[in-house]
Amino acid sequence: MRLTSDPISLLLAQERQQFRKTLGGQLLFWLALGVIIASAGVFDFSRYTDMPRTFGALLADCWPPDFERWRHWLRPLLETLAMSLAGTALATLAALPLGILAARRLGPVWLSWPARLILNITRAIPCLVWGIIFVAAVGFGSLPGALALACHSTGMLGKFFAEILEHADPEPGHALASLGVTPLGVLRFALLPQCLPRMLDVVLYRAEHNVREATTVGIVGAGGIGLEIVTAFHLFAYREALALLIVLLVLVTFIDQLSSLLRHTLLGAQRA
Amino acid sequence: MIRLDNVSIRRGASEILHGVSTQIPTASVTAVVGRSGVGKTTLLGALNGLLRPSAGQISVSGLGPLDDACLETHRRRTATVFQNHALIDRLSALRNVLLGLADTRHPLSLLPWPQAQQRQAAEALDEVGLLQYAGTRVDRLSGGERQRVGLARALVRAPRLLLGDEPFAAVDPNQARQLGDAIRSLATHHGMTVILVMHQIDMALALADRVIGLAHGQIAFDGPAAQFDRAAQARVFSPSVSKGA
């Protein structure tokens, strides 16, 4: 007969006790998730009755895609690409100092707190709202789009940069500090070389994201392919709208491939 | 010569070292031994000026008592080898060694490292027998090789004082012996003063000229390695407070 006090039985009893302890919390979590999803009306199945028919009609109206005006789309496509890349570049330049100051271990509290506030504000305001603000401030075109993407991306990139720096191995920094290297030198020579690959990864991901986001910003008057798509929908030119979406898909796929190539090429580089 | 007169060090509310006095001759290898938490790493911190004595004085020959005026000069002449290497994994061995010269560069400089400094770093790698791995990322090296890169990073500064915080703890016995031989040769051929915190008593006796045994923040043994016999070891490693050698 096995004794209940043997180590394996004790371990299993502890596991059962642990499971019972967390059971209540788990049930509460799934219940809360169900309530949140239900509050969005997801379980209101009467709303779905017309959906297949509407989708079918829309697809029939879209097909086949109409590429006849393709020459007119080249400029908006380039605008979309330019505003997304310019927005990412500006955001990276702004996010680097802000992220460094916001990182808990690095900046003094009197500077990290305002830096975090700026990052929170720029991140909290949606890109579309930034687009409306900048269209009102500087007029139509790709400039307000680039500025809107830069503002929102600064908040996102700065937060990621701060977190990456906070999680860097502090030991190489301690080693340099023991040699009399200044805090700025420790940041430059010990922390940034460690964090650079992950920072670059985040920037490339953001650049991809901004190509898609630039289309949305275009809708509020910031130019680019987004404006063309919205105009096509407004004119009920669904075949042209589908063609534009296919062009956008090709552009996003191209950027995705380019970003993968850049990651592969740059992340292996060793620069201090 | 490094001289400690009645040095006490506080960390927060507690005093870690109490009235430590000793003399460490130039171009010697000294092993600092003792149980965990007796203040060995604190002593190293005091010797490279990262921790300031709450009482007493540390003097270095040629500089005098360590104070604000000479601390920077002392730290420029001092290098430390760490237990966990403290290297940047994704950089090559050469780049890691160059970081030992980071205090000579402006932090915002985007220029490549000057040729002269790259040569210095390559020579330091050559000295520890790793020149062939200069371009290899350090995360592809073994524990012993990584520790030797850490040693090269310390050597590239041509320090007068080399401190080691358990530099052999993370390497196998064979690599530890090789590393020990390299350190021994530095003291002999370059006149470098070496102070190593160590746990391996056999290795300390084989490598060091002198042994400082710490117990409860005080010196329990201070003398030639040959005199660090079983009785002295028992005094250092016994749980009760003991003093004097």
What report would you give on this structure?
Chain A has 2 domains: 12-62, no CATH class; 70-266, MetI-like fold (Orthogonal Bundle), CATH 1.10.3720. The longest helix of chain A is centred in the C-terminal third of the chain and has 40 residues, at 183-222. With 272 residues, chain A is mainly α. The model of chain A has no long low-confidence stretch (mean pLDDT 87). Chain A has 10 helices and no strands. With 245 residues, chain B is α/β, with parallel strands linked by helices. Chain B has a single domain (25-48, 77-237), classed as 3-Layer(aba) Sandwich (Rossmann fold). Chain B has helices at residues 40-47, 68-76, 93-98, 115-127, 143-155, 173-190, 201-207, 230-237; strands at 2-11, 14-24, 29-34, 55-60, 64-65, 78-82, 161-165, 193-197, 210-215, 218-224. In chain B, a hairpin with a 3-residue loop joins strand 4 and strand 5 (64-65). The two termini of chain B are 20 Å apart. Chains A and B meet through helix 7 and helix 8 of A and helix 2 and strand 6 of B.
Q: How far do the termini of chain B sit from each other? A: 20 Å
Helix share of residues of chain A?
A: over 70%
In CATH, the architecture of the largest domain in chain A is: Orthogonal Bundle
Specify the CATH homologous superfamily of chain B.
Answer: P-loop containing nucleotide triphosphate hydrolases
Structural class of chain A: mainly alpha
